[in-house]
Each structure stands twice: as structure tokens, then as C-alpha cells.
Design goal:
globular
């Protein structure tokens, strides 16, 4: 197995290219589409660079996998599928996310059955990459559709945990639940101590390098929010207290609308332009609450 980690600094997002070096079969996890909300310009060049790398290495993409419906960046998943022929996979619980947010944005053209994705994943499912097997672990809490992908000694854990100095992800979006996130963390902490946990995000301070992975042992001993011995109720109180002080992600409005469609092209209007919605008469944070 080869893992190549790519960090998009604008959104603090890690994208992972995972490959079976014998067969050349590969998967791309959480690819990023660059987007400027001021101009409305989207740019696939960042992810195209990863695809070029995969081609140079002789890898053939079989799967694009989303660890959840992201609220902080637009997904390049559908772009990758279109240019590579890969299939797109996400948790079956994406349907719950769709059923929550489609009414919020009044997206009358969007189905809420997950049909925008090629495969809906459940606990224990496996994706094949040559001789590699990527096993699905359901790890909700940050969102209801959170999954982790376990392959050999590596687990790609989405937003379940951050690097130890940054703790854990918020749980105040619809369907989020701090108690459920605690349970998901315990599922990861039950893995062998040397298992590498590959993070979806990092937010290093200036001058620091971004952290792509930590071991189970490192997180259990150093994570500032949840380590060995942290009680469930203590974590819930900490997480809920922090969440009340957080502002919304900068790209939450375009990201959620775009990503719950699996990155599919939005139908252009009569002038040939496709649009994403911005609420006007009600603050979005109040709508979520």
C-alpha cells in the first residue's frame, strides 16, 4: 500500500491518494474543488495535479470516497469521476443529510435518496483496490454520515478527530451529536495502538507543518478533548460548550448545497448560469438551530 497525502491550505483539508502498488488500483479520499465565493469561480487545478501524479505513478482510480458531506470546502469528487471513470462512494446516511438540508435551501430539484452517488456504504462494507480491502467503519457525531476507512494499518477518519492540540470536530450542525461522536472516537481507540489515523483537516499555527496522521496511541495520550480516561459526559459538556462559541465555516453555504448533490452539475437557469443560494431574510445559523 502507498499513501500520498496532499494538503489544501485554503481550507485546511487533506486529500489522500491510496493505492495498491502491485495492481495499480487506487482510491482518492476527500478531493477538494477550489472555490472563490466572491467571484463564484471554481477551479479543479488542485485536484487535477493529484490526478496527474496518479497517472505518472501508473495508478488507475477505482473509487472516490467522501468521509462525509463537508461544510468547509466544495468537493471535486464528481470532477474526478468524470475524468477518471472512478465511482463515487459515501455513507448511506447521506440521505439523512439530504433530507435535512434540501428543505432548508428549498432545493426542489434534488432527490433525497442518495442516488447522486454510485455506492452507499454501511458498517462492515469493503471496497476493493487490487489486493487491498478498505473496510467501512461508521463514525458519526460530527455529522450523521461520518465514516472512516480502515485498510491495513491505516484508518482515514474524516472529521472524527483532529490532531491532538486541536482536539475534535464540532457537533452542532443538524444531525450532529457530541455523545455519538464520543462513541465513534472509542471505536477508533479500540484499534491497535500503532494504527495510523489519517485526518481530514488540520489548522496549524503560522510556521507549523500541517499534521496528516497520528497513531491511536498518540491520540489516546495527547488529544486535548478526548483521551484515555475522558468520560463521556465530560466530553459532551466540553464539546457543547465550545460549539456555542464557534462561527460558521466560511464556505458552508455553497459547500453543503454542492456536496449533498455529490458535486453534480447544477442545472443552469435560462441565462446559462448555474447558481447557489444565499439566505436573505433569515440568518443561516438561526435556521440550523
Amino acid at each position: 500500500m502507498e499513501i500520498r497525502s496532499h494538503f489544501e491550505t485554503g481550507t485546511g483539508t487533506w486529500t489522500y491518494l491510496v493505492a495498491d502498488t502491485v495492481s495499480g488500483k487506487a482510491a482518492l479520499i476527500d478531493p477538494v474543488l477550489l472555490f472563490d465565493p466572491v467571484s463564484g469561480h471554481s477551479d479543479s487545478s488542485y485536484t487535477q495535479g493529484i490526478l496527474d501524479e496518479a497517472e505518472q505513478l501508473g495508478y488507475q482510480l477505482e473509487w472516490v470516497i467522501e468521509t462525509h458531506v463537508h461544510a468547509d470546502h466544495l468537493s471535486a469528487a464528481r470532477f474526478v469521476c468524470q475524468v477518471s471513470g472512478a465511482k463515487l462512494a459515501v455513507s448511506h446516511a447521506v440521505r439523512a443529510v439530504q433530507k435535512t438540508f434540501v428543505p432548508i435551501f428549498n432545493l426542489e430539484d434534488v432527490l433525497t435518496d442518495g442516488s447522486q452517488f454510485d455506492r452507499l456504504l454501511f458498517e462492515g462494507d469493503e471496497l476493493e483496490l487490487g489486493d487491498l480491502r478498505m473496510k467501512v467503519l461508521e463514525t458519526p457525531g460530527h455529522t450523521p454520515d461520518g465514516i472512516s476507512l480502515l485498510v491495513e494499518d491505516a484508518a482515514f477518519i474524516g472529521d472524527t478527530l483532529f490532531a491532538p492540540p486541536r482536539g475534535s470536530a464540532r457537533c452542532d450542525f443538524p444531525g450532529g451529536d457530541a455523545g455519538i461522536l464520543f462513541d465513534s472516537v472509542q471505536k477508533l481507540y479500540a484499534l491497535p495502538e500503532k494504527t495510523r489515523l489519517f485526518l481530514c483537516h488540520d489548522y496549524p499555527t503560522e510556521g507549523q507543518a500541517a499534521t496528516a496522521s497520528i497513531t491511536v496511541a498518540e491520540s489516546r495520550s495527547k488529544n486535548i478533548h478526548v483521551k484515555s480516561g475522558t468520560g463521556r459526559e465530560d466530553f459532551i459538556a466540553l464539546r457543547q460548550g465550545r460549539d456555542t462559541k464557534l462561527s460558521l465555516p466560511r464556505l458552508i453555504l455553497p459547500s453543503v448545497q454542492f456536496n449533498l448533490r455529490g458535486g453534480q452539475e447544477i442545472t443552469p437557469e435560462s441565462n446559462g448560469v448555474a447558481y447557489l443560494k444565499t439566505p436573505l431574510t433569515k440568518a443561516f445559523k438561526n435556521t440550523l438551530a
